[in-house]
From TrEMBL:
Transmembrane segments: none annotated. It comes from the Bacteria. Residues 1-21 form the signal peptide. Keywords: Signal, Transport. Pfam families: SBP_bac_3. This is Amino acid ABC transporter substrate-binding protein, PAAT family. Gene3D superfamilies: Periplasmic binding protein-like II.
Length: 291
């Protein structure tokens, strides 16, 4: 009788162990499904769905550029892939959604995407609508001019009111440059994406493009004969991953993932494989702001 009971207990225990093993591994030979997350979290929801929508740029060499492969490539894209891998989702299950500067908060708030990785400066105004994990990089605003230009040497060059400068609607550089131009109405030209500004500079419709140095360095790398930077960075642009404002668990998970990426070398590798080829400095990893 006693022996029977022991055997029964052992059988139940074995069954429980078996179930645990199954629950902890959804199968899949990539290992992608082998993560488990607290029920009810965004991480669990995404992992269960085995797919994710990521907002990024499609027109920024080195950070997010959609080329012939049909998939965007760049540092932001690689950072997003690191996060997606940590969620246990295979890379080919990422749906890449173009997220130009102006729409980034909107696509997070309305759920068009699950996260945004798109040269996205962390600031208080944006934090009123969304939340940021990170920073994972710090860029700075600069100015792109034609290679033979000697008249524009920094943002003060716009103060005399004669030069036109292009930037992107909804970006921090578009706001910052307003403090330097004499007449916003005639001098500041705004498009929805930076590649349009680059084309306007090349075509002579504007005298300069202003945004983060790393975006401009990407354009220079693709067309060294035409462009150069005018002067030094004049702002600090810490890049964060945008998520829903109320989703503290997801933000914390991404922060942990970024910390891990720095310590295991995947952050540096992501840089070296992408924007690092275009002459920008990676520097040391910025301290994550767990606000
Ligand atoms: N980092 C700046 C921003 O978030 C400029 C780059 C961009 O527009 O994506 O506004």
């Amino acid at each position: 009788m006693r022996i029977k009971r022991v055997a029964a207990v052992a059988a139940v225990a074995a069954l429980a162990l078996g179930l645990t093993a199954c629950g902890g591994d959804d199968g899949g030979d990539t290992g992608a499904g082998s993560k488990s997350f607290t029920a009810g979290t965004t991480m669990e929801k995404l992992n269960k769905a085995q797919k994710i929508k990521v907002g990024t740029k499609f027109d920024q060499p080195g950070f997010g550029l959609k080329g012939l492969s049909g998939k965007p490539e760049g540092f932001d894209v690689e950072i997003a892939k690191i996060i997606v891998k940590e969620l246990g989702i295979p890379e080919d299950k990422i749906e890449w959604v173009e997220a130009p500067s102006k729409v980034r908060e909107d696509v997070i708030v309305n759920g068009t995407v699950d996260l945004v990785a798109a040269t996205y400066t962390i600031n208080d105004k944006r934090k009123e609508r969304i939340a940021f994990a990170g920073p994972y990089y710090e860029a700075g605003q600069n100015i792109l001019v034609k290679k033979d230009d000697t008249t524009i040497t920094g943002p003060d060059s716009f103060k005399d009111g004669t030069k036109k400068v292009c930037s992107v609607t909804g970006s921090t550089p578009a706001e910052t440059i307003k403090q330097y131009v004499k007449d916003v109405g005639t001098q500041l030209v705004l498009f929805d994406t930076y590649d349009k500004c680059r084309d306007a500079l090349k075509g002579g419709q504007v005298d300069a493009v202003t945004t983060d140095n790393v975006i401009l360095l990407g354009y220079i790398a693709k067309d060294e004969a035409s462009f150069k930077l005018a002067g030094s960075n004049f702002t600090k642009e810490p890049y964060g991953i945008g998520v829903k404002k109320e989703d503290a668990d997801f933000r914390s998970f991404i922060n942990d993932t970024l910390d891990k990426a720095v310590s295991d070398g995947s952050w540096k590798k992501a840089w070296d494989d992408t924007a690092g080829k275009f002459g920008a400095e990676l520097g040391s990893a910025p301290t994550i702001n767990r606000y």
